[in-house]
Amino acid sequence: MSEPREEPLEAPEESPEPEAPPEEEPPPPPLVPLVRRHHWLVRATHWLNAVLLLGMIGSGLQIYNAFPHFGIRGEPYLPNPWDNTGFPLGIRLGGWLAGGLNWHFALAWPFVITGLAYLLYLGVSGEWRSILFRASDVPRAAQMQLYYLKLRKEHPPQGKHNALQKGAYSFIFLLGVLSVLSGFAIYKPTQLSWLVAAFGGYELTRYWHFWAVWLFVGFSIVHVLMVFLVDPASLRAMITGKYRGRFPSHD
Amino acid sequence: MIDQAVTDLRLSRRDLFRLGLVAGPASLAASCGWQGGPLQPKLQAVSRFNDWVGEKLFVSNRRLAPQYPISERTPDEQFPVYSRTRPPARVVVPEDWSLEVGGLVRNPQRLTMAMLQAMPRITYTVKHHCVEGWTAIATWTGVPLATVIALAQPTDEARYLRFDTLDSGYYNGWDLTSAMHPQTILAYAFNDGPLRPARGEPLRVYSPIKLGYKMTKHLSRMTFTSERPGGFWEDKGYPWLGGI
Fold this sequence. Notes:
The complex is a heterodimer. Helices cover 55% and strands 2% of the residues of chain A. By secondary structure, chain A is mainly alpha-helical. Chain A has a two-stranded antiparallel sheet with strand order 1-2. Chain B contains 6 helices and 10 strands. In chain B, the strands form 2 sheets. Chain B has a 5-stranded mixed β-sheet.
């Protein structure tokens, strides 16, 4: 089974299944055509973002270790399962506070730039239509959830992404935007005091920025699990751009 | 459908290997508290660039830090004190202390405490931001630094200000824009009382537009320079501008 990878294959003809004698090779599984699924910009920003996010989290946890609490001095600290807990060296980036800060503020540039490049691409190409979660997706997402819970037998019809995926991806874009905004607010709390106020004050801004980490981590774990459990072909699509899987690649 | 998935998985084995190529350096980078190794000078260069952006884009002398009611002050004993020397540096004979203002100025100054306290003063209750992430609120009283700068009249070449201390070689470099900010002061009072030794007696720099490590305590000398001065923590790798 080694097809030339880049060459599009013709769609299989509906051929009647021949009654093959048992000693012969079993017929190969039906092939669906290899289609273009992801633009190179989407693939590049996706993988860059994965690496950069890892670096942002590692350096962020390094910064957290310098003051592992949330709240102003002299008042009770905000609820936090990691209160007064240092993160182990193995998951930190920077080694000490200044190292963590320098990594965090250096990686923030490509992190924001790749994020903006991707969002710009979505807007210009019109791809946003296939990924943005809208009100009409609510009942579809419910159906999809029923299917995953095995309370519905057949897979609901979908476009490039199902409604739950749209919800998850739209949420993670929003989380990215909020992380960047809260990060800027923590970086320049006096100059951007209006932004700090919008997040509920400096201490709460730091708090939300920290919780965003765990939402990113949770999303990433589920995201990778779903790739392998539901649509392994999508991994290849995100690397080479070509997809041969069970779902449509266009709405 | 399951056959299909298996086929795809097999086809993407090489892709998995490629993914490994990407994930390898990524996990390496995020592990073991890596400071950057050969990349460290590059990180410092980006930090300098961020200082430049911070100075050009974010430092505005029209934007003031918010002030707080006195009732929101952090209890004195809860407001941490970081000192290089223990016990903190002190002036043996207070009458002998004076602030020397020199470097690229037209009128070098030697200011006694009596002279400083005779100048117009401002008092504000603001939030202190430590680079570590903690915050505390206190009231500070002092002379606007802009007043002292106006007395000394820096020359056109002067672009930075270096603050030196009595305290074991601690020093800081500041950009002039931040030094001229209306809330940047030479403080001699804390929470309505005199500046205690640990808070930077007899005089210290204070400003709600910079992080705590930029606020030189036990101030003894101010020097205007054309070259950017470093700083005690800044030389060790902390962001130079420290502007918030």
